[in-house]
Amino acid sequence: MTFPIWAKSWEFMLAVVLVVELLVLGAINPTFLNVENLLFATSDFIHVIIAAVGLTLVIMTGGIDISGVSIMGLASIVLGLMFVAGVPIGFGVLAALLVGTAAGAFNGTVIAKTDINPLVITLAMLFLYSGIATGLPTLLDLLGFKAYGAGGFQAYQYEGISGLPKSFTWVGSGGVGWFPMPLIIALTIAVITGWLLTRTRFGRFLKLIGVNAEVARFTGVPVRRTLIAVYAINGLVTAVAGLVLTAYFTSARSDLGAEALLNIITAVVLGGSSIYGGQGSVLGTVLAGLVLGFLRQGLLALGVTSDVVPVIVGLLLIGSVGLKIGMGVMQTRRANREAYDTERLAVAQNGG
Amino acid sequence: MIRVLKSREFLVLVLMVAMILAVAMVNKAVLYPITLINIVNSSLFLMLLAIGQMFVILARGIDVSVGAIAGLSAVVFALVLNAGVPLVPAMLLALITGLLAGMVNGLGVAFVGIPPIIMTLGTLGTYRGMMRVLTGGSWIESIPQSIKSFAVTRFQTVPLMVWTMIVVVIVVSVLLWKIRSVRYFYAVGDNADGAYLLGINVRMTRFWSFALSGLFAGAAAIVFVGQIGFVPMQTGNGQELKAIAAVVLGGVSLMGGTGSIWSAVIGALFLTSVDSMMIFLHVPGSWNNAVAGFVLLAVVVSDYVIRRAVRNRRLAARAAEMRQSDRESNDGDTPDFSRELEATP
């Protein structure tokens, strides 16, 4: 039995896994299969998918950006502070997105201009941005600005900056028909980045840099500019994720999304991207994010405590990569065997 | 001697002393011996994690699960202590827990071939989840006094744990300096293929680097339980990133093969003293992370700038030398050639 080529792809396997997962969970608990519920349930984990889509582009170049989880908090707190300062919410969103893009571009600039491992740089940035996000309100407060919103410092510590206008929180909880806004935003971003990656020169540059940055440079790819751009895009996309999360929780906090790092990287890697660069797809990342998110929700709905979920997610991450490595080994072995057989046949024919 | 003075470890040490002296100008209390001893004492947890991390990074891996391993070991340690197991066997159990957890990482990385960051991210979630499963999500309190009294016992006003740490550091540095099989970590990290061709068992070296990292995380768990006296669920949360930051700050390259135990020790001391200095300067604690991140960024970037400047100067010198010798040989060549011509007939 032969499969068409698209059926052998990693994305197709993920789609099958997703469908099977939903069917199994639905068989155990039929209320789970309500389409509207399913779609709105994505809001719980959509920020992971959005951030993972941005990270896919970065990992495509063989780099990594772990500071994204801090950029989420930073974008959220910038929006909150703007809101407290009385700036119209639209400008607040714009400022938060700008800060996110600038943070990403800063990552990219340092990474492109030095030969330091991206992991080290974004590790430093992870601390730096999260420190700025937690420190900014205290600093502004010291300087005499009212930085804590209506409830003062106590309330800020518990619930962040709340009281955000309805027009903004609608982005987190509202929807168009059956489609919740966060999902629409995520899919829009996924379509745009997917288009960037597969249909533009920029996307091919990313892939080429991931395969071999040195060769890319000699081929005339503007490596530095491309790197700065891709990290800036990642910053922008993560800032969007932070804002969507802010709208969903209806309050701006500096530690929003800080727990998401494991899930984000798992989604990217499970989605078929190679951590060494040059391989991966946005579609795979989105599907993997959905598989992970629904798995988590399904387990919770089945009464598994939330403590066990990271165990399963972790094992899934290791297992998926192990499986890929195993498949690779099998493939080379089969190729070797075929080559050996044809060679032997040729020798035998020559001899006869 | 010159080599020591030029090293990254020394640079960071000088920076740290300068920072402490600068803060001392504002607040003299920093220089009291007891303050300094307390800084060292509170850096022990991070230092142990960093030393373990150092082995992994030397062999060109990375281990982001050390914080979770420390948490898991701390839970096991506290649980068996509460079950009435005496102190020493309980400590051994904590160490073994760490070792086993590290060995799992090592198996995945060295023998299955999973990239280190993926493997340890996976086990990070797994161990952290197991920790909660073991305790049911609640804190472990009412730990026997024996371990706490060990933590507060002082000899010559220096806590016993610090003395133990000094011994550990000396032992590890001697091992890294004298024992060949320990030096394999450098060889594998610098050039795995070359190490393989030299007959070094690359896989086992990788495996043991992760196992050692787990072992040291287990030791860190003992320190943690002794010093804090209870085990919250956040134990070790985010510490893996701090440990990597400490090691990198101290001069261990993520490309493997360079660095020493002093990198881990000084890096951990630096990050801890940054936190303490913030307190002495009355800066709100919420800025700690920002300062730590800024210091790490500044050190690695300035290290790069210095390295590039040195390399450029060396390249320029070599280019000048070549040009010089070119000119000389050109100057010399022509007469030589003519003289030869004259001499031939």
Give the SSE layout.
The complex is a heterodimer of chains A (352) and B (345).
Chain A: H1 10-28, H2 35-41, H3 46-60, H4 68-84, H5 89-113, H6 118-142, H7 152-159, E1 161-162, H8 166-173, E2 175-176, E3 179-180, H9 181-199, H10 201-211, H11 213-218, H12 223-249, E4 251-252, H13 261-270, H14 282-301, H15 308-351
Antiparallel strand pairs in A: 1-4, 2-3
Chain B: H1 2-6, H2 8-26, H3 33-58, H4 66-82, H5 87-112, H6 116-135, H7 145-152, E1 154-155, E2 158-159, H8 160-178, H9 180-190, H10 192-197, H11 202-228, H12 239-249, H13 261-280, H14 288-343
Helix pairs in contact in B: 2-13, 3-9, 3-11, 3-12, 3-13, 4-5, 4-6, 4-11, 5-6, 5-11, 7-11, 12-13, 12-14
Keywords:
heterodimer, A: 352 residues, mainly alpha, 4 strands, B: mainly alpha, 79% helix, disordered C terminus
What does this 3D model show about the protein?
The complex is a heterodimer of chains A (352) and B (345). Chain A has 352 residues and is mostly helical. Chain A has 15 helices and four strands. In chain A, a hairpin with a 2-residue loop joins β2 and β3. Chain A is globular, with a radius of gyration of 23 Å. The two termini of chain A are 34 Å apart. By secondary structure, chain B is mainly alpha-helical. In chain B, 79% of the residues lie in helices and 1% in strands. A two-stranded antiparallel ribbon of chain B has the order 1-2. In chain B, α3 crosses α12, α4 crosses α11 and α12 packs parallel to α14. The relative contact order of chain B is 0.17. The chains are: A mainly alpha (352), B mainly alpha (345). At the A-B interface, α6, α13 and α15 of A face α6, α12 and α14 of B.
Q: What is the H-and-E element order of chain B?
A: HHHHHHHEEHHHHHHH
Low-confidence runs of chain A (pLDDT<50, min 5 residues)?
A: none
Largest sheet of chain B: 2 strands, antiparallel
Number of strands of chain A: 4
Give the strand line-up of the largest sheet of chain B: 1-2
C-alpha Rg of chain B (nearest Å)? 25 Å
Structural class of chain B: mainly alpha
Query: How would you state the average pLDDT of chain A, rounded?
Result: 88
Binned, the helix content of chain B reads over 70%
Question: Structural class of the secondary structure composition of chain A?
Answer: mainly alpha
What general form of chain A does the structure show? globular
Radius of gyration of chain A: 23 Å
Distance between the termini of chain A: 34 Å
- Give the assembly state of these chains: heterodimer
Neighbour order of strands in the largest sheet of chain A:
1-4
